[in-house]
Amino acid sequence: MAEPAQVMGWGQIFGILVLVGLTVGLLLGVIGEVAGLRFNGGAGVGAAIGATGALLIARRRLAVAARAGQKSG
Predict the structure, then answer these.
(1) Among residues 32, 38, 61, 68, which one has the fewest Cβ atoms lying within 10 Å of its Cβ?
(2) Which regions in the chain score pLDDT beneath 50?
(3) How far, in Å, CA of 15 to CA of 50, rounded?
(4) Is residue 35 part of a domain?
């Protein structure tokens, strides 16, 4: 029998999003300092968090649906 789909918890998703935000913010800050550029890093951080969050939530929904399908079948 197949292993049930692993469902990522909301706490884990939140932790990943915090790490993505910190990493992208630091990366953009370092690039800005090294290149001497001034730009809105908040927009880049928001975009990275939004895209990552959308992917993680979609993946969680698929895992929940797969687990529900295995229980009923």
Answers:
(1) 38
(2) 1
(3) 14
(4) yes
